């Protein structure tokens, strides 16, 4: 495995050092920095002017990828660690900037600008976004998003932009089948009629999963509507529905695997999680001038989850219902300053989450039932400005004031409590475009994370924890984007993040563990590098990420954070050298890392792995057919590992070699 990895990097080095000779042979251009992003400032902005590490996955990138889900698409993005926990494409963690086991609470995920992070410990439900509905993904690493979006953005922001209707009526679809009795199908219809644009989609997926009791079935539907009332007023209405019934195989301990039990086995045959999730969003844009406008968005979401889980010392049955109401007005003003267009954004975000929890548990033979009502109301006010100082030099800055009000009611015990947390954030950065398609940047940001609702709830004792403080981070980064001619691009970023009062689950706290604020600071620093090189009909791309995460002070002083590999790399090749035939291959290396909950660093590390995936696509006039092979080398590894309640190393085995074949069509 390591020889293969070193060979990949050797090839990368050869490509870069031989660039001048190879450049003349290139036939295809590299995409330029003229692309725009909307996530970095909540309005369209040239990537060259963004003082942050940015990656954009286009619709073409998505089509060419070997990935079958949105998280799989992110595996090649520098600075992003993806873990498929159950191996069935349903339960993922996506980590930006090395937040480890709390990654899902420190990575803000948006769909068309609407946050989909849950208000509880479940974090992000990646099953809500079928890959086939996605038109574009924007990844902004670092804490810059804290000022613009508020809570959960300490590691970065991922904005998933869905397909919209345009032009004449167009219909497309996709069907596929693969290993583990996996079947999926989806359909899309979109277009415009008079002043109305529409886009509707439906998706169905079922799979038995790699392991026993890892079957999953999901159904999704979405609709995007927009109506041009006039040249200045635009209305929008979006909605979606998701449901899935998923079995949970649980972990296998080291002793169980050493005894010869199959990696595909499950010792939790009754565990499950069933989800129903729906939302509706409406709003408008009114333009005062060609570039200044008022935008208002109102959203409502309802989510219901039933689940059962068996532990070493008991079992847990639960039902949670979360209702979310959101309101986000913003005023965008564009004006001419020193001969350059300056953008100023004033905004307000309001979100109210109400969660009802009903629990029935048995621990050490003692049954307990409890019912709770938890509520969080969040108010955020912000101002952000992008100001060009010269033709090449851009400056941006922003501030935000955020307040969260928590209310907890234990219905069974007839008790209640409340808490209010306040934070003030700011960001400042500058970008210098020193060539047509090259720029350098430096920035500083302060970000934060408030406790989620059930992070203030102890599931073992069914009790409320109302004394958690907000977590804050200070983020400094600098980077460079280089386009060396039409066929080679390089990106380099360095960052340093200091986090205070980090909220995490401490298994050593009291008898059963609890969510607490870390009594030391967390230092995260690293390097992110990526490249893209065209050579005739070949596109070669790769990335390398180095992370160093240490705890400074307190009980765990000097220790590494769990589930954060120091080294991670990817290498890929795409070619269309044959007529109508396209071949892509992609490899991802993830270094060894501490098991989840091993804050003492007293256990051996979870082993590194190298995963190689390939895809062969035949391009037809009205679609394409493909065959994809995942884990071609049939490597035996585990992406995810934990130290269980009894202190034993436990593994979630990842799938071995598997195949999926499908057909895309469009009219």
Number of H/I helices: 7
Strand content: over 45%
Radius of gyration: 24 Å
CATH homologous superfamily annotation: TonB-dependent receptor, beta-barrel domain
- Choose one word for the global shape: globular
For the record, the count of structural domains works out to 1
Distance between the termini: 44 Å
Largest pleated sheet: 22 strands, antiparallel, barrel
Low-pLDDT segments, ≥5 res? 1-34
Class of secondary structure makeup: mainly beta
- Oligomerization state of this entry? single chain
Helix fraction by DSSP (H/I, runs of at least 4): under 10%
Query: How many individual β-strands?
Result: 38
Global mean pLDDT = 89
For the record, what CATH class applies?
Answer: Mainly Beta
The CATH level-2 architecture is identified as: Beta Barrel
At the fold tier of CATH, the topology name is Maltoporin, Chain A
Describe the protein's architecture and organization.
- With 667 residues, this protein is mostly beta strands.
- The protein has a single domain (2-272, 288-666), classed as Maltoporin, Chain A, CATH 2.40.170.
- Helices cover 7% and strands 59% of the residues.
- It is built from 7 helices and 38 strands.
- The model is unreliable at 1-34 (pLDDT under 50).
